[in-house]
Design a protein that fits this description.
The chain is built from 8 helices and 11 strands. By secondary structure, the chain is of the alpha/beta class. It has 2 domains: 194 residues, Spore Coat Polysaccharide Biosynthesis Protein SpsA, Chain A (Alpha-Beta Complex), CATH 3.90.550; 51 residues. The N and C termini lie far apart (54 Å).
């Protein structure tokens, strides 16, 4: 794709990729949070998985603000994200998927108002959705120990701006935790990173099934031990905590249903 944007001096092109499938409920918020950014060198790409609801109507409504969009069947969210990576021409990439949104209209400008000589820039995220008020989550340092111990709790990809020169495509071997595998790949290439203090994005909590936490834990173990063998033992305390927390929350949901 030949982008109409440019790499200006001190103003790098930022590629924002939104992946969506039947996301009419929240997609418009996501789109507006991107196209209303005060930073004026953004390439916006939307990858739709062949939605059958009103998603395409929303995309077409903002078509003149979108650099590229496609709607076709894919192999799932990570396949769609790989399509976005292949199409992006920016110096930096960010994934802002349907339902999530930037924290404010000036956040990209705040980050890139000066030259950023890093491989990775990221910051806090605020959780929204089925909770009374937003919960801010502070990211950890992007290193191997934290990825092994905290797993995807180390950082949220919605807050990450990654240099395209080190970007990796997601493995399609994993349906749930390809993001963690992606972090492990990036960790090998990230030599310098910066954590900003201002929240970068809102992340909308999804409606996971009552037993999905077990599937997540299983695949987390597979990803970790496939990458680091015995070092994966570091992750066991956090995964045990996650398991029991999910188990207790599930019991509470069952009590509400009775």
């Amino acid at each position: 794709m030949a982008s109409s944007k440019f790499e200006g001096e001190g103003k790098p092109l930022i590629s924002i990729i939104t992946v969506v499938y039947n996301g009419e409920k929240y997609l418009e918020e996501t789109i507006q949070s991107v196209i209303n950014q005060t930073y004026d060198n953004v390439e916006y790409i939307i990858i739709d998985g062949g939605s059958t609801d009103g998603t395409l109507d929303i995309i077409k409504k903002y078509e003149d603000k979108i650099d590229y969009w496609v709607s076709e069947r894919d192999g799932g969210i990570y396949d769609a994200m790989n399509k976005g990576i292949k199409l992006a021409s920016g110096e930096w990439l960010n994934f802002m998927n349907a339902g999530d949104k930037f924290y404010n209209q000036s956040i990209i400008m705040e980050i890139f108002k000066t030259v950023q000589d890093y491989d990775l820039i990221y910051g806090p995220i605020e959780l929204i959705g089925d909770i009374k008020k937003p919960i801010q989550v502070i990211p950890k340092k992007f290193n191997l120990f934290n990825l092994l111990f905290w797993n995807t709790g180390t950082v949220c990809h919605q807050t990450m701006f990654v240099r395209s020169r080190i970007i990796e495509r997601y493995s399609l071997l994993y349906g749930l935790k390809a993001e963690l595998d992606w972090y492990f790949m990036l960790e090998k290439k990230v030599h310098t990173y910066k954590i900003v203090q201002t929240p970068i994005a809102y992340y909308r909590l999804g409606g996971l099934s009552s037993n999905s936490y077990i599937s997540n834990i299983k695949e987390t173990l597979i990803v970790i031990f496939s990458n680091y063998n015995i070092l994966g033992m570091i992750s066991l305390p956090f995964l045990a905590y996650t398991f029991f927390k999910g188990y207790i929350n599930n019991l509470k949901l069952e009590d509400l249903d009775q």
